[in-house]
């Protein structure tokens, strides 16, 4: 039985960029960072969100938490529309939705002790710092695998992996239901990355968490996710359960993305054997007409230049936005 | 004869806590046309190794405390700065992780490529321009003659890395050092750049030293592999051997902790603990505190790199008994 925890419907975020200049003569352009995206995250699952730089995956993660305001579209959390509710009401929901950032160095205030960092969300939500917050912080430290003596220490005394554990403890101290992991393991060395991935999975089971796991590393996403969504230039181009999307991707971009992952053994070297997509990711300021992938797509047809394909159900639980499958 | 011989290289840095060895007793060699992969996590010393070979570390605070680098029969460690200038370019060239910071933003890419060539060869302006266009063509920049006058900010990350490669290859180096050449790039662009490096090796026959933290990049490109940990080489072998028969517990861990693109693993095999900082390295085998096979003896002496099988060397006291049958 799956119940949606978060649903985005036609969600967009457009930024006005480049305006102003001499006497305001330069014209502003619209950057469609996220464009009419719809998807659902079910309670207790991990939805992986992959795509290359500039595809809008981080913006989408922040939109869901309303850390940035959407231009249009709606977000529902636990059945309630949270798109236009006021600050105070939103604050109530914020307890239930938290984010873990990529850079464990930049995300922690260097002047605050570990106790203050982890207790901060509690204090913001009205608790008085004291024995009770200290107990909660100590409990969280234990959960993320840090000793209680870490309480009085400062971020610079910890390694990257340990700092990420502190970031996780801070995100979890309010016992949220949804965690957006924005490239949460990308900056870590692989031997440490595996520890943090395991920790995130343990905590999910223990605390019944729902994850939106944003990353560019396709093998980490496959490992941790139940379902995976692929983004390209502000659009979700394919969503399916992880086994299907990695074994039988339908969108040519998903296929190219998976084919570009380096081999895991020299015997499977991809040069000359796997199809490469040529060219660079076009600018999001001036995206191609029709299907945004058509400039790089090996299967491009005339219709792809004219009309943007819609995200449609190609098989049960497998959605794809491509004219090839639109028959 | 080997193109490059590095013997017992130790590079030390002066720090607030005294002198610290960034790399210790690093030895390896490289033949013409060979691709050597150097893999390691942060603080393993892979970049310091490359920069020492290139003679690009500021001295002080850096100092080659022991060992030597012999390139094409010449000892680089004892060479003057002026002579070293003549090695860089036609002898050894280097590309870096971040092409944006390696390119000068106020000069066109054509000027920057031509400057490199002009530093080593006497050519007319027209010939310089022709060579630069030629190089951009070779690295797969479309309509090269038009792009020559573009500035770095007008190009994408992948194109900038192609420009860096064009610049590095402009003087036909015998050895190209590529330090994390694809780390800042997206995966579809990374595949293009790795293909390009392999194509150029096949075309020009230059040797490549590719430095990376990514075992996938190693699997895609390397002929032979050097695994580094905490400043020391801990394993060296042909690429297939490293993946099929890793002999050092760290190499095994490094291969196991990467999730698979095709198989389901219920849980990742993580290596406990963290990488030691150069100033706080443990005594004895540097990996011992994180190693599940460590014995008390491992923390007493540093194991040397020894040939355990043909062309396969490992620095571990227990490698022989732990080796898979």
Description:
The complex is a heterodimer of chains A (327) and B (325). Chain A is an alpha/beta fold and 327 residues long. Chain A has a domain at 4-19 and 29-96 and 176-251: Rossmann fold. Helix content of chain A is 30%, strand content 23%. In chain A, the strands form 2 sheets. In chain A, strands 6-7-8-3-9-10-12-11 form an 8-stranded mixed sheet, sandwiched between helices. In chain A, a hairpin with a 2-residue loop joins strand 11 (312-315) and strand 12 (318-320). In chain A, helix 3 (114-124) crosses helix 4 and helix 5 packs parallel to helix 6. Chain A is globular, with a radius of gyration of 21 Å. The relative contact order of chain A is 0.14. With 325 residues, chain B is an alpha/beta fold. Chain B has one domain (4-322): P-loop containing nucleotide triphosphate hydrolases (Rossmann fold, 3-Layer(aba) Sandwich), CATH 3.40.50. Chain B has 12 helices and 12 strands. Chain B has helices spanning 46-54, 81-87, 99-102, 109-120, 125-138, 144-147, 157-169, 187-204, 215-221, 239-244, 249-256, 319-322, and strands at residues 4-15, 18-30, 35-39, 62-71, 74-75, 92-95, 175-179, 207-212, 224-229, 232-238, 306-309, 312-314. Chain B has an 8-stranded mixed sheet, with helices on both faces. Chain B has a 4-stranded antiparallel sheet with strand order 2-1-4-5. In chain B, helix 4 packs across helix 5 and helix 7 runs parallel beside helix 8. The longest helix of chain B is centred in the middle third of the chain and has 18 residues, at 187-204. Chain B is globular and about 65 Å long. At the A-B interface, helix 5, helix 6, helix 7 and helix 9 of A face helix 7, helix 8, helix 9 and helix 10 of B. Chain A: Residues 6-258 form the ABC transporter domain. Chain A: One of its GO terms (molecular function) is ATP binding. Chain A: This is Dipeptide ABC transporter ATP-binding protein.
